[in-house]
Each structure stands twice: as structure tokens, then as C-alpha cells.
Amino acid sequence: MSKLFLQRLLKIEGTVAAFAFVLAAGAVLADVIGREVFHQGIWGSAKTAVFCAVAAGFLGIGLATHEGMHLRPQFADDWIPERFEPVMCRLAPLITAALFFTAAYYAALYVYETYEYDQAAPVLGWPLWRVQIIMPYAFASNGIRNLIYAIHPDLAPKPAGFV
């Protein structure tokens, strides 16, 4: 059940991230073509590209985690004796999950404040909270992912560079 959930989460987030990246590239390309060929850029394309790239980047956190490519303090790998490895395989993702859930909480507060103050994106006038909502989602999604890794260490990816 957990493995299937992780696979589906990866597929959905990967698809949305790829689509957001294509939109970002398309917006920039359309603006450049507009400026170079028609001497008129496309209004709001740069800001749209930035928002799409931000969405792709936040969703990329989960993709990197799934592949074991996330940042981690490798200099500390030898600090814990090997006999504690089974405990660390559960404890490390549990601590990481707690950090992600904490980040999700504060990101949600930030998005709510943006919503409450009715802040809009410069140029486009879009409500900012609609763009920012990706932050608490991405953090919570990775919190859940790491919580599953803590419960089922066999589902956790091996860190990149390890066999």
C-alpha cells in the first residue's frame, strides 16, 4: 500500500513538475520570439515563467528525495557506529519528516497571511496565495514521504553514489 502510494505520488508530482517546467520554458520562449520577431514582448510572460519554475522547483524536492539525491550532511556519515544503522534508518527519516512538517506549518501560515492581506503578484495581479500554496504542499508531501520511509525503511531510496 505504501509503495503504491509513493509510486503514484512520484508520478503525479513528476508530471506536474514537468508540465510547469514546460510552461516556464514556453513562456520565456514566446516572450523572446515576440520581442525579436514582432518587437513586442508578451505581457506577464516573465512573471508567469518565474511562477512556473518555482512550482517545478518545489515539486522537485520530492523527486530528488525519491531518487536519494537530496542534500544531506555526508561529512557526518561516520559519526554513528554501524551497529546503530537499523535505528538510524528509522530515526533519520523521522527527524526529516518532522522538519518538513514544521516547514509546511510555517509555509501555510505565510500563505494564509498572504491570503488575509489579499496580496497580488506585481504585473499580473494574481492573488499570490494561489502560487504560494505549492510551498506547504511540497513540504507536507515530503514529510509524508519521509514518514513512510521511517515506518518502512525498505522503501527509502539509497543515497546517490551508494550501491
Q: Could you write a compact summary of the structure shown?
A:
This protein is mostly helical and 163 residues long. The chain has helices at 2-38, 45-66, 85-116, 128-132, 134-151. It contains five helices and no strands.
List the helices and strands and how they pair.
Layout: H1 2-38, H2 45-66, H3 85-116, H4 128-132, H5 134-151
Explained architecture:
- The protein is mainly alpha-helical and 163 residues long.
- It has one domain.
- Helices cover 70% and strands 0% of the residues.
- The protein contains five helices and no strands.
- It has helices at 2-38, 45-66, 85-116, 128-132, 134-151.
- Helix 1 runs antiparallel to helix 2 (45-66) and helix 3 (85-116) packs antiparallel against helix 5.
Mean pLDDT: 91
Structural class: mainly alpha
> Which percent bin holds the helix content?
55-70%
- Structure summary, number of beta strands: 0
What's the helix count? 5
The dominant shape is elongated
Listing every helix as H and every strand as E from the N terminus to the C terminus, the arrangement reads: HHHHH
Strand content: under 5%
Question: What is the CA-atom radius of gyration, in angstroms?
Answer: 19 Å
The end-to-end span amounts to: 26 Å
* Oligomeric state of the chains present here: single chain
Let me know the largest β-sheet: none
**Whole-number total of structural domains:** 1
Low-confidence stretches: none
